[in-house]
Design goal:
Layout (H helix, E strand, L loop, with lengths): L1 H10 L14 E12 L2 E9 L11 E6 L2 E8 L2 H12 L2 E3 L5 E5 H4 L9 H4 L8 E5 L3 H5 L9 H9 L13 H8 L5 E11 L4 E12 L2 E6 L1 H10 L6 E6 L5 E18 L2 E17 L7 H30 L6 H8 L1 H7 L3 H6 L2 E12 L24
Parallel strand pairs: 1-5, 1-6, 6-7, 13-14
Antiparallel strand pairs: 1-2, 2-4, 3-4, 8-9, 9-10, 11-12, 12-13
Helix pairs in contact: 8-9
Subcellular location: Membrane
GO biological process, one term: spore germination
Family: Belongs to the GerABKC lipoprotein family.
Length: 392
């Protein structure tokens, strides 16, 4: 009897899930696009095409291509659009697998945060999905040709996982975005994604960073300014930089570590901040004719430091003088250091940041120079004594 009682609970584990859905009767959304359309919200979706299915995309702007189906529809909200898309998909849409959100720039320049409310209010949506902004139509991003994956959204997400090796890009997930806009400085940033032609094929490419203030996109950072932002935010964990020692000689350094420490000093409404940036790297290649020694290494380290300082200064100039928006991390460190004073200055922080005096100090340390100390000698001299010299 005891054994029977012991076995009975495990029998429930073998029962099917009461809320399960048959894949053949479901439309699994992997990518979502949002944009403006005649005063309404245009919602676009990329749906995985079931194996063996002969269905093609339909509805307004719909189309099928390979392993995915694309649909879009105008609506008042995401949930309203999702319900309407059932008419086109002939199936109920499920967003449990959605990993990608693409916001059109036209919508991003308005109060677009409200349209994202459904993403964390409904348990179907995943807060670890990635967010992007695009200048064009979001459905163009979802419909681009893929190089490796079956779905455009899956390939873009896969590419983002490689951005840790490239300092020019940044990535933001939904929960990270909400954390930014609901923090002590309600500003945020999102990566920009575009389409481009590559050998008669349209592919997607990350290109800069959008700056968000007051729930709206107020400007963008270019590639170099994005590098500076990643350095400020301690997100430039890896990457490569090429520096010029003179007009002809160049050296590449692979960045292994970058750490920025921010020390703010607040007196009334006057802010001063000292940025101490420590970079560690290894020598990637040496196209010069110089042999590697301590003096030569010091010269390369100085050039890498100068380049990093240039990128950070470009970023701060754009944020302070043009956009007047702090996404640099300086405000967060000020909030942590001066929690009492922060209550009095929080509402005018962007103005205080814009007038702040910021000092940048960069130190680079090349920790490894490779397996050889010599550079390639392109002009070989003949041996002084050649035992194999040909006789006339």
């Amino acid at each position: 009897m005891g054994r029977i009682l012991f076995i009975i609970p495990f029998l429930f584990l073998l029962m099917g899930c009461w809320s399960s859905q048959e894949l053949d009767n479901s439309a699994l959304v992997h990518g979502i696009g949002l944009d403006k359309s005649d005063g309404k919200l245009r919602i676009s979706v990329e749906i995985i095409k079931p194996t063996g299915s002969s269905e093609q995309g339909g509805g307004e702007g719909g189309g099928g291509n390979g392993q995915h189906i694309l649909l879009d529809r105008d609506a008042d909200s995401i949930i309203h659009g999702a319900r309407g898309l059932i008419k086109d998909a002939k199936r109920r849409l499920y967003f449990d697998h959605a990993r990608l959100w693409v916001i059109g720039e036209e919508l991003a320049k308005e109060d677009f945060i409200g349209y994202l409310d459904e993403s964390r209010r409904d348990q179907m949506f995943r807060l670890n999905s990635y967010l992007f902004i695009t200048e064009g139509n979001p459905i163009d991003i979802l419909s681009t040709s893929t190089l490796y994956e079956d779905l455009s959204s899956a390939e873009i997400v896969s590419a983002l996982e490689q951005t840790q090796y490239i300092a020019e890009y940044t990535s933001v997930k939904l929960y990270e975005f909400y954390k930014l806009i609901e923090g002590p400085i309600p500003n945020a940033y999102l990566p920009i994604i575009q389409t481009k032609k590559e050998k008669d094929k349209t592919i997607t490419s990350l290109d800069g960073t959008a700056v968000i203030r007051n729930d709206k996109m107020v400007g963008k950072l270019n590639t170099h300014e994005t590098v500076g932002l990643n350095v400020l935010l301690n997100k430039a964990k890896s990457g490569g930089e090429t520096v010029s020692l003179n007009e002809k000689e160049k050296v590449s350094v692979e960045i292994k570590k970058s750490e920025t420490k921010i020390k703010p000093t607040l007196v009334g409404n006057q802010l001063k901040a000292h940025l101490n940036i420590e970079i560690e790297g290894t020598l990637a290649d040496n196209t010069t004719k110089s042999n590697i020694n301590e003096q030569w290494i010091s010269k390369v380290e100085k050039e890498v430091s100068n380049l990093a300082e240039k990128y950070v200064r470009l970023t701060l100039d754009k944020l302070q003088k043009e956009l007047k928006t702090d996404i640099s991390g300086i405000g967060l460190e000020t909030y942590r250091k001066y929690p009492k004073q922060w209550q009095n200055i929080q509402s005018e922080w962007n103005e205080i940041f814009s007038n702040a005096d910021i000092i940048i100090d960069v130190h680079t340390n090349i920790t490894h120079q490779g397996l050889i100390n010599k550079s390639i000698n392109r002009h070989h001299k003949k041996p002084y004594n050649n035992p194999y010299k040909l006789r006339n």
